[in-house]
């Protein structure tokens, strides 16, 4: 299938690489399939009125809420993973190679670990900046704006991550924050090109849940001719993030 032109919430151009950017209904849940320069499907608030669709919307709200107890977040992560696995197996537009779907039993995940779940504020960027990132395609470059900086500690090691938005020419125009990152597990336990987080933008005074248990692989991790943004050097973490999705395995 050809791709629909445009830019998805994480600034990925949806043109020229096989999968059309669109939504997919699986088991009553609406999954966003951003398409060509893509990440893995992410759960979005569904418009349908089915019980499972309503449950999917509730999961998203639970995971975004800084006041959610850790044990509740752990159960919500588990439910979200089960939904995503079903979508990967059943969807016509699944990034899994067709010959892998029949035997697919689920993605590889680290167990939920509350040490990698942070409630943080989005601090201003040191200066207004535009950032160009390379991609897994040598002829493709992405342009972003720095939307802010997240600061946190992993095992007492200070860490920072830039939150990006696509450079649409108008500051704060994009509704989502895109956070590509690499860490000490990249290329070993996790996908070598890095993983992603994506958050809904909140009001300036609001806290965010930066939960690496929701870290996901770009579609490039599963093969295919995708163009996936690479994390900028500022988002190379000096620590191991053993949370979220692992390196895909076909064993």
Structural overview:
It is a single chain. With 251 residues, this protein is of the alpha+beta class. Helices cover 16% and strands 25% of the residues. It has one domain (22-235). The strands form four sheets. A three-stranded antiparallel beta sheet has the order 1-2-3. It has a three-stranded antiparallel beta sheet with strand order 5-6-7, with no helix packed on it. A two-stranded antiparallel ribbon has the order 4-10. A hairpin with a 2-residue loop joins strand 1 (22-26) and strand 2 (29-33). The longest helix is centred in the first third of the chain and has 21 residues, at 70-90. The radius of gyration is 17 Å and the shape is globular. The two termini are 29 Å apart. Mean pLDDT is 79; it is low at 1-54.
Topology:
Layout lengths: L21 E5 L2 E5 L8 E2 L7 H14 L5 H21 L7 H4 L15 E5 L8 E5 L6 E14 L2 E10 L9 E6 L13 E6 L6 E5 L40
Antiparallel strand pairs: 1-2, 2-3, 4-10, 5-6, 6-7, 8-9
Helix pairs in contact: 1-2
Q: What is the radius of gyration computed over CA atoms, rounded to a whole number of angstroms? A: 17 Å
Total helices: the number is: 3
Question: What string gives the helices and strands in order?
Answer: EEEHHHEEEEEEE
Molecular shape? globular
**Strand portion, in percent?**
25-35%
Please report the distance between the alpha carbons of the first and last residues: 29 Å
- State the strand order across the main sheet: 1-2-3
Helix content: 10-25%
Rounded mean pLDDT score: 79
Oligomerization status of the protein chains: single chain
Structural class label: alpha+beta
Low-confidence stretches: 1-54
What about the largest sheet? 3 strands, antiparallel
């Amino acid at each position: 299938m050809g791709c629909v032109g445009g830019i998805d919430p994480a600034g990925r151009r949806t043109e020229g690489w096989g999968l059309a950017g669109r939504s997919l209904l699986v088991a009553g849940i609406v999954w966003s399939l951003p398409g060509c320069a893509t990440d893995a499907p992410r759960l979005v608030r569904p418009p349908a009125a089915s019980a499972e669709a309503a449950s999917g919307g509730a999961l998203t709200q639970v995971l975004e809420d800084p006041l959610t107890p850790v044990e509740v977040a752990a159960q919500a992560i588990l439910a979200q993973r089960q939904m995503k696995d079903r979508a990967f197996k059943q969807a016509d537009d699944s990034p899994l190679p067709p010959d892998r779907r029949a035997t697919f039993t689920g993605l590889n995940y680290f167990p939920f670990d509350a040490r990698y779940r942070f409630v943080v504020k989005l601090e201003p960027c040191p200066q207004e900046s535009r950032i160009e990132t390379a991609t897994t395609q040598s002829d493709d470059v992405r342009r972003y704006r720095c939307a802010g900086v997240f600061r946190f500690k992993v095992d007492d090691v200070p860490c920072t991550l830039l939150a990006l938005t696509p450079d649409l020419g108008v500051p704060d125009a994009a509704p989502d924050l895109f956070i590509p990152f690499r860490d000490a597990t990249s290329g070993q336990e996790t996908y070598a090109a890095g993983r992603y987080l994506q958050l809904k933008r909140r009001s300036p005074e609001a806290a965010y849940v930066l939960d690496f248990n929701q870290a996901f692989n770009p579609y490039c991790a599963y093969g295919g001719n995708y163009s996936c943004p690479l994390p900028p050097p500022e988002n190379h973490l000096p620590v191991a993030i053993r949370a979220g999705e692992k390196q895909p395995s076909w064993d």
